[in-house]
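Posting this for the archive.
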Amino acid sequence: MKLPWRPLRTLLPALALALSATALTAPGAAAAPSPEPRAAAASGTTVSSGWNDYSCKPSAAHPRPVVLVHGTLGNSWDNWLVLAPYLKNRGYCVFSLDYGKLPGVPVFYGLGPIAKSAEELSAYVDKVRDATGADKVDIVGHSQGGAMPRYYLNFLGGKDKVNSLTGIAPNNHGTTLSGLVTLMDKIPGARKALGGMTPGLTDQAIGSDYLKRMNSVPDTVPGVRYTVIATKYDEVVTPYTSGYLTGPDVRNILLQDLCSVDLSEHIAIGTVDRIVAHEVANALDPEHATPTTCASVIG
């Protein structure tokens, strides 16, 4: 009997996200560890999540904090339940933000105008730099979160504050609106919760005014190192090669070239794939990179 692998690998990550959201918002549910900033230095309380610890000071081995930027319909915790602890355990100061919130819409973020979201990222990077004392940060983003920072770099002065940008399945050059609807329908409750206008979705559609402005300048800015990690099973960013960048100091990677049997699609590649996590660590510290293979899932 042939098993329906593709539907299963599409459904399971979305189901996991939905269950996480349900557990965190259900009446009477126990409070989950929150990655939100705490006044740790002032009050002596601990940051139970391990990331968004504003008392963290970068080490000599990892001198720049890492800012994680979630994707469309994600948020600062559900997108990073695997990658944030993975990087934190390797000695990085790790931070994540919520951006692009629509009034009255909880949990599902990244829906506001992307240019406005880039302004939120700009303010957040300054906050992290002030707290850690670091001159620059490294940015890692999934989906919209891997592409939106380019607006910050190109138009908001971010190039002087960012060392590298790693995009996981980023929507750099646009996708069809049907691909964005696919993303919305993969996450239980998202379509009902949204209802109204969602510029964070329409800005990513091919031909949008936002993308016309982004495509009016080169893909990259001098002095920033870029990595793109794509999957050939991406059903949201289509074709998946539209996420690739052109320019100096760019590395475009196809996940299946690292592990041919990895079936991760758009959600899984940015939320649960530890092979991707290993390659992100390589992108953050290329001088100490180690080969990424199928065995990296246990690393």
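The CA atoms of residues 146 and 249 lie 16 Å apart. The two ends are 33 Å apart (CA to CA).
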